[in-house]
Amino acid sequence: MSQVSYFITGAPGFVGTSLIKRLLQENVRITAAVLAGENSEHLSVAIKRIIVAPLSESSDYTTALQNIDIVIHLAARVHVMQETATDPLQEFRKVNLHGTEQSARQAAQAGVKRFVFMSTIGVNGDNSGDRPYTEGDVPHPHNPYSVSKYEAELALRQISIETGMEIVIIRAPLVYGPGNPGNFLSLLRIVSKSIPLPLASIQNKRSLIYAGNLVDALATCATHPAAVGKTYLVSDGEDVSTPELVRRVACALEVPARLLPLPVSVMKFCARLLDNFLFWIWNFVFKSKTDNSKSKNQHSKFTGAINRLTGSLTVDSSKIRHDLGWVPPFTMVEGLSETAGWFRKKF
Fold first, then answer.
1. Alpha-carbon span 301 to 257, nearest angstrom
2. Helices in 211-331 by DSSP H: which ranges?
């Protein structure tokens, strides 16, 4: 039996690194797409690296995709902390929509059998309320990133109809694990210093997924015959409140969790005050009178952050468990323990 051949975009990244380790447990061949100048020394010597241009509507992966059976597409323009683009949606579309569509069409032309797309739970929305999101919910992408991902999902389904290439889509909530960047790394830094956090009064629920569980789901979707044409929501299967997450992170880091009670209404009021102050300063300095609604939208960072911190975002991952028999190989306790161990060594 010949080896299955994988092509991984975004391979040197946080999820890509874990995915390659997972796939190397099987008898497969892996080609990793690496950007020029991107550090890939941490990737296994057992894989093939190929230098590619940044993902865009003009990307040419034709040569790299020859003799590839399965593409797992992780490369994306993700959340930008300090956005400078005048039209963020168009910047996200260049990579996440047009770049994905281009690479998928080239994959189909090269005879790739299956294309697995890493999407985001943001396609469903940013607050699930008192019931978890499911695959059957009407999509409600809420920011340029999630809009571009949803548009890519639609484009991939059309390509599948036109070419017959199999498509599988994974939507994931917050991913954590060794090497995690962004907000979860910030949480680790804050909790490790035992900084008091006014979060004890928050009563919400959040779904997360450990990187080891996510890549296992991706690997399963890459080969399982029942996954063809499906969209799956994935999580650890254990939802926690924001203060409970802080307690679990503190336990994994072996430090005390310092949580103080502060009414959520007070938190939101203070956030609105800060946003309004920044809005006033912006208009005073730049005398922006042409589009106040757009300007105010751009200066609602504190309110948005508090809403995300206090709101619920849960997912029902029963569909992938039922269809594919998938069970997360790691518990949240195990995932946080591995993450904390990496953090202590690194920082």
1. 26
2. 211-223, 242-253, 264-286, 292-298, 301-310, 318-324
Give the chain's radius of gyration (CA, Å).
21
Q: How far apart are CA 236 and CA 331, in angstroms?
A: 7
Helix 264-286 to helix 301-310 angle (10° resolution) is 160
Q: For residue 280, what are its two tokens?
A: 């006033």
Which of these is catalytic: 61, 145, 176, 210?
A: 145
**pTM: predicted TM-score of the whole model, two decimal places:** 0.93
DSSP state of 57: T
Cα–chain center distance at 104 = 20
Show the tokens assigned to 35. Answer: 């950007």
Number of other residues whose CB lies within 10 A of the CB of residue 200: 18
Note the helical H segments in 193-259.
Answer: 211-223, 242-253
Question: Helix, strand, coil: what percent of the chain each, to 5?
Answer: 45, 15, 40
> Which tens digit of pLDDT belongs to each residue from 42-85?
999 899 999 999 999 999 999 999 999 999 999 999 976 556 67
How do residues 289-335 score in pLDDT, each as one tens digit?
A: 445 544 445 557 788 889 999 999 999 999 999 999 999 999 999 99
The question of whether 210 is a catalytic residue gets the answer no
Q: For residues 122 and 149, is the Cβ–Cβ distance under 8 A?
A: yes
Q: How many CB atoms lie within 10 A of CB 286?
A: 9
Domain 4-180+207-237+311-329: give its CATH code. Answer: 3.40.50.720
**Any idea where the domains of the chain sit in the sequence?**
4-180+207-237+311-329, 265-309
